[in-house]
Amino acid sequence: MADPVVYILQNSTITIPEMCSVLLDPQCMQHLGLSVTPAVNWVLPLPKPKPFKPRPDSGKQMKMLHMTDIHLDLYYTPGSNALCDEPMCCRSTSHGHNNSAGYWSEMSGVCDTPLSFTEEAVKHIGNNHKDLDFVIWTGDSVPHDEWNCSETGNLLHINTTTNLVKKYLKGKSVFPIIGNHEPCPFNMYVPNEVSIKSKGQMSLSWLYNTLADDYWAQWINTASAKKAFKRGGFYSIQLNDRLKIVVLNNNICGGRNYWVAYNPVDPDGQLKWFIDELDSAETQGIHVLILTHQPMSACYESWGNNYMRIVERYANVIVSTYYGHTHYDEIQVLYTKNLITNETYPISHGYVGSSLTTFSRLNPGYKIFTLDSNGKALDYDLYYTNMTADNIAGKNVIPKWSSEKALKKVYGLDSLTTDSWHQFLTKAQTEDKLLLNKLRSNIDHGNHTKQACNDCVSALTTAKLVLKTPDVLKSAAKTICKTPGVVEPNRVCVGTLNIMSDPVVYILQNSTITIPEMCGVLLDPQCMQHLGLNVTQAVNWVLPLPKPKPFNPSPDSGKQMKMLHMTDIHLDLYYTPGSNALCDEPMCCRSTSHGHNYSAGYWSETASVCDTPLSFTEEAVKHIGNNHKDLDFVIWTGDSVPHDGWNCSVEENLDHIYATTNLVKKYLNGKSVFPIIGNHEPYPFNMYVPNEVSIKSKGQMSLSWLYDTLADKYWSQWINTVSAKTAFKTGGYYSTQLNDRLKIVVLNNN
């Protein structure tokens, strides 16, 4: 970064306050006591609207592949460290202690795509979608090792990926785009003006010229397209007599392209060119399909504002926009505001593609769109592969692809217009908050009517589309918790959503079953019938049972045993005598409990919303130990943790289990104890992560902190055989032979 940063600082055409305003926000000028200048807030003139007379839809449909963010890594090494001390791993040079990089790719979230999977993916697409009319490829073929990039290395990755596209999608019209990772340094798009002034010393001609004249020459194949691309990485091609493809390089407006601080006013004249392309299309009566790498939220303000003005002006010409960059399957609706009425309204929409890289811990995916003859999307299918399962199957089994088809129907849409997506997202922000609350209520109350099942599908479908990361749910928690119908106090609701965000999003984005099957499991198998589907093995599964055989137990010896059954202690180390026994939260009797009833008793409280203080817990266990010395063994059936599910943590749960365990060891010393985990022991409460997920996520989603701590430390004197420890660490269950007549089998049915 040294060369471009120093060049910008020493040669910028704008002042330092203007630089700060472009890089941060135009308000910087006001904060610095200065007027906003034309360099900070610039406006391009727009032609006046004229009649747009497109040809009517011919009825002929087209199939379009959207492929994006391959992020090929030619140095990916199976078996190398998938977690390391750098931002990107899975190379032979990656330092760490987790030698687990899969053969096909890796789900640790910090690895890019090996050549083996890249080739298999493009080959799969070519073999299984021979009816494709054209391909849009929205950028980023280069790995994420920005500190280690070079012009030669970047070109090698682009050329390798390009050759695979040419080999397996031979004969297809392809519209490639450059992403923010293609230049070196990443994100840094040198303006053509600087290339000329520096006589090529600071230039991207090595990238633009190589692609336009060599790698992508068969696709960027007109003189005007080559000229535009060599100037700034943008171009247009007329696909047919009804549709023009306009490719923008909006990486230049991204927040980490510091070249905008050199001259921010329409770099490379791209937006002026964009206006001319749209105006020409309007005159000719042809629609425009826009391709660009980054969703528009990444742009600095003036570039973004001008882009929005242009899109609104030519909204009748533009059919939609297709993006990459985020790696997620997303929808973007662009809104503007009427400055007189302050009303916000939609002007356009776009589709963000699923990446082929697993970087960001995502399964690889791509989309196939069905378009009408004018380029308007009619429907689309999403294809994806389960990378963890692919790696388990091994290098000799090619990745298996699954699909979610006819997503217009899945999302309950009549069409894929801007207005339809606007209505859908509005519903997602309002009605579907109620649907999620209703779903939880239906689960709690066993409601599986047809309406409940349909509501479940709507809620989970929307949630899967909207909740791509835990941060989305966390940021929306306060809004959701203010929705009518939410009965919990705000702190409880927000705390619960924050704690639940990681597992909920993981389940939505990685479940091995369909959304209807989810509803069939969460509510009732009858949901499948209500939804017009057959009950599947995922919903109604049956394990084989061994045939009965003779049971010949030893006869009763006549010796009796005494067994203590102790359960649901729910110790609360924060119980405070004299505090509020009735408060505005589901659990009280703490110093933080808000209310006006300072009546919590010393030993405990019968107000029904308080747990057990340490004083009473100790006295109770002590009493048992002193008064029942003839006990032979103890069964302790779980829940040592208090009921503050919105406020719990791994550390606090373990503290409560540890404190209770020590009392049992102290006062029931020498007794055989068979402890069980309850639904309050995990974090979050009730959420028992399957061992399969623990393995797939490499411990990111795991209960090993609970299972291992109990089996190896707190309860090791009771869970004291190798087989018991192994079973407990798998899923919290175990068995122990008490004597030659009796085995104790502990299940985790939480």
Distance between the termini: 54 Å
What's the CATH C level of the largest domain?
Alpha Beta
Give me the count of strands: 19
Q: Write the CATH architecture name of the largest domain.
A: 4-Layer Sandwich
Q: Note the total helix count.
A: 24
Main β-sheet: number of strands, strand sense, barrel status?
6 strands, mixed
CATH topology of the largest domain: Purple Acid Phosphatase, chain A, domain 2
Rg over alpha carbons? 31 Å
Mean pLDDT: 92
Give the number of domains.
Answer: 4
Indicate the low-confidence ranges by residue numbers.
Answer: none
Read across the widest sheet, the strand sequence of neighbours is 3-2-1-10-11-12
Helix and strand content put the structural class at alpha/beta
Task: Please report which band the strand proportion falls in: under 5%, 5-15%, 15-25%, 25-35%, 35-45% or over 45%.
Answer: 5-15%
Considering DSSP H and I runs of 4 or more, what fraction of the residues is helical?
Answer: 25-40%
Give the overall form: elongated
Subcellular location: Secreted
Pfam family, one: Metallophos
InterPro entries: ASMase/PPN1_MPP, Calcineurin-like_PHP, Metallo-depent_PP-like
Keywords: Disulfide bond, Glycoprotein, Glycosidase, Hydrolase, Metal-binding, Secreted, Signal, Zinc
Description of the molecule:
The chain has four domains: 1-32, no CATH class; 62-442, Purple Acid Phosphatase, chain A, domain 2, CATH 3.60.21; 450-531, no CATH class; 563-746, no CATH class. It is 36% helix and 13% strand. The protein is built from 24 helices and 19 strands. Strand 4 and strand 5 form a beta hairpin.
